[in-house]
Amino acid sequence: MNIRLATPPEVAAGELRRTVDWALGTRRSIRAFLPTPVSSHDVTAILDVARYCASGVNTQPWHVHVVVGAAKERLSEAILRVYEDPSRMAALDEPYDYYPQEWISPYIDRRRKVGWDLYSLLGIEKGDKARMHAQHGRNYRFFGAPVGLMFTIDRHMGRGSLIDYGMFLQNIMIAARGRGLDTCPQAAFNAFHQVIAEQLDIPDQQMFVCGMSLGYADTSRVENSLVTNRVAVEEFTTFHQR
User: Fold this and answer.
1) Domain with residues 28-99+141-226, CATH architecture
2) Which of 28, 128, 197, 214 is most buried by a 10 A CB count?
3) Which of helix, strand or coil describes residue 143?
4) What span, in angstroms and rounded, lies between the C-alpha atoms of 65 and 55?
5) Mean predicted confidence (pLDDT) in 131-154
């Protein structure tokens, strides 16, 4: 498969804009998926169009490991064995600092709000560590999605390549929306990078970036009704005119 994008699609400009805006505006992190299979053709088509994102001097620094079926189940079980063992959890590290070492406002406020908004929908009260632990552990079963994506990058690449990688990930998520699919990008996998490398035979020169669940959203699940707040354009934009 080799999607060619040089020729614009034969759709009206207004319709094209609305379609792109719809895909961007409806992308959400889905935390409960249907078991409905996703064909390898669709996965390949999503990756095929996602590769057209920008990257510095065309480095294209991404590598994708697609896990489905028995391979996905083995990976989940290997991670969960560590997740349920406090001594092994204490020994974990992360391949890079995804989050800040010290949280400050307004970022800590946004983090807390999305966490408690989700727990509120699920009926998980503050202090209920057992249910919080169980809910977080659902990450490692890909929230029931039939497809898991594991992303790595060559360790020789600089931090700027992670900007390129972010655009690649966004392209995947938007291309999925265009096919009626949903995703959940997951930094929750990062602490388990060594387990993932062992299970998927990822070479040492490849650094783990993040994981992602891919599938059809289960719209009957209350957690999928969560819509996160976004700050207004005026709050993060400065126009310089003189």
Assistant:
1) 3-Layer(aba) Sandwich (3.40)
2) 214
3) helix
4) 20
5) 98
Degrees, nearest 5: CA angle 122-125-131 = 65
CB 143, CB 211: distance < 8 Å: no
Cβ atoms of 75 and 200 within 8 Å: the answer is: yes
* Gap between the terminal Cα atoms of the chain: 49
CB contact at 8 A, 155 and 205 = yes
Per the CB < 8 A criterion, the answer to whether 42 and 222 are in contact is no
Residue whose C-alpha is closest to residue 213's, from 53, 10, 11, 75:
75
| pLDDT, tens digit (0-9, with 9 covering 90-100), for 54-81 | 999 999 999 999 999 999 999 999 999 9
In DSSP terms, which residues pair with 214 in a beta bridge? Answer: 147, 183
Sign of CA dihedral 112, 135, 71, 28: negative
The pLDDT of residue 10:
74
Which helix or strand (DSSP H or E) is residue 151 part of? strand 147-154
Question: Residue 62 and residue 168: Cα distance in Å, rounded?
Answer: 8
| DSSP codes of every residue in 170-233 | HHHHHHHHTTT-EEEEEGGGGGGHHHHHHHHT--TTEEEEEEEEEE-B-TTSGGGG-------H
The sign one gets for the Cα dihedral 147, 142, 203, 50 is positive
Decide: pTM greater than 0.90.
yes
Q: What is the pLDDT of residue 12?
A: 79
Domain ranges of the chain: 28-99+141-226
